[in-house]
Amino acid sequence: MAYLLGIDIGTSGTKTLICDEKGKVLATAMAEHPISSPKPGWSEQNPEHWWKAVCIATKAVLKKADAKPADIKGIGLSGQMHGSVFLADGTRPLRPALLWNDQRTAAECAQIESKAGGREKLIDLVANPALTGFTAPKILWVRKHEPKVYAKTRKILLPKDYIRYCMTGEYATEVSDASGTLLLDVVKRQWSDKLLSLLEIDRDLMPRLYESPEVTGTLHDSAAKQMGLVPGIPVVGGAGDQAAGAVGNGIVSSGIISATLGTSGVVFAHADSPERDPLGRVHTMCHAVPGKWCVFGCMLSAGGSFQWFRNELGYLETEAAKVITRRGKSVEAYDLLIEEASEAPAGCEGLFFLPYLTGERCPHPDPNARGAWIGLTRRSTRDMMIRALLEGVTYGMRDAIEIMQEMGVATKQVRASGGGAKSAFWRQLQADIYKQTIVLTNSSEGPAYGVALLAGVGTRCFKNVEEACKSAITETAKTKPDKKVSTLYDKHYAVYRKLYGDLKQRFGEIAELA
């Protein structure tokens, strides 16, 4: 029996997955790695911790799947986007990697837009505006603040591509993840020589480009020994976590979009052509499907807002969940909080929650944005506060859907995934607020599953990505919107959309007080 291995380098941990040649998942495993924040707004990781986690999780998943090392036919890689690994010679990084949620590069973003001749011209060059999360401003920051590190740098790699180098010795990436560096000509699917020249970044620092299902190298002896595998296994390009997750959920044709509610919230749409938002509110990047593109919007604190409420204000539910679980019925604090939210009326009598707990990215690229409940009265209850939070997060997801519709991106079906897809109440909430039928699939393993399928394409288990998804992914449930409730939410959403603009200046003033 031949198996496919998917590896996803997440922010909090690395996930591995083994499936068979038809896409049936046999086992998954996880190994955690720490995050450091040397200063407020900074976020870093040691890439060597990723490699250690890869080795641990790969051995674990082989054992759980009862798979022999020689049974692995191909490997796909996914990972957190935008992170920057600075290498000289060898696998030891010159400094910790700057991550996607690192906020130190506002000045460099302004510099990039200025060098490009303004935001509009930058979007013309690379399809996206300069954001603090992207890789290019991180490169400029290191060049300015750590010139000795930059002088020694021979290659700059993204997180999953550092793991590729550890596995194969090849400096390589693929177009979906490279799109998030802000240095790729997304339309032509090649490095932007013009922007690299304007920013005075040596093109030789960038790895070789591939399409996602292409084989980029093979596992070498040392890596195979450390991972518990055999040498010579093909490693395909893989994809950045968003494109990989989309493949894993079957978002590989026009009209199907995904709404993923995890710590962040991502709305992702397949595109047959490189549609761009001239205002840069959503991202246009290369898809993991060769010759195709994607449009997606990312809000920074979706499920993260709910997690904050549980951690800071959900003590009673957390303790109650422990008691119930000890009595033999498994339940989480989130389940109890959602049950409470379901008791509140839709719209919460005009109570709103702004989910900007860590600033915002889509549709408001503003690191100073703050979270808030607005519209509290003496009638407001705790149930309403919880429901308003869930509604506010879902309004934020609708923001991205609305922008895509303005751009002419087809949105005929919404596939839900992440924590927000597990709750029937939150699925109904999404259906009512998006005014779209919410679809669940048999796939719930995310990016690791997507890149395992890409490995199947690269090793000819499947003809192409579309065939892989059609073969492996099926719809399992649908939730239709309630037209009456949707009409009510339309009125509330119209108010929600205005609140950020009303408070934008105050957010900046508040940030100066912090």
Report what the structure shows.
With 514 residues, the chain is of the alpha+beta class. The protein has two domains: 3-241, ATPase, nucleotide binding domain (Nucleotidyltransferase, domain 5); 298-442 and 476-506, 2-Layer Sandwich (Nucleotidyltransferase, domain 5). The protein is 41% helix and 21% strand. The chain is built from 18 helices and 24 strands. The strands form eight sheets. A seven-stranded mixed beta sheet has the order 18-19-17-16-22-23-24, with helices on both faces. A five-stranded mixed beta sheet has the order 3-2-1-5-15, sandwiched between helices. The chain has a two-stranded antiparallel ribbon with strand order 4-7. β10 (184-185) and β11 (190-191) form a beta hairpin. α2 (106-116) packs across α3 and α12 packs across α13 (333-341). The protein is globular and about 65 Å long. The termini are far apart. The mean pLDDT is 95.
Q: How do the strands and helices of this protein lay out in sequence?
A:
Elements: E1 3-9, E2 13-20, E3 25-32, E4 44-45, H1 47-65, E5 72-79, E6 85-87, E7 97-98, H2 106-116, H3 119-126, H4 135-145, H5 147-152, E8 155-157, H6 159-168, E9 172-174, H7 175-178, E10 184-185, E11 190-191, H8 193-198, E12 208-210, E13 215-218, H9 221-227, E14 234-236, E15 239-240, H10 241-248, E16 255-261, E17 265-271, E18 283-286, E19 293-299, H11 303-313, H12 315-326, H13 333-341, E20 352-354, E21 372-374, H14 382-406, E22 411-418, H15 424-434, E23 438-441, H16 447-458, H17 465-472, E24 475-479, H18 483-513
Parallel strand pairs: 1-5, 5-15, 9-12, 16-22, 22-23
Antiparallel strand pairs: 1-2, 2-3, 4-7, 6-8, 10-11, 13-14, 16-17, 17-19, 18-19, 20-21, 23-24
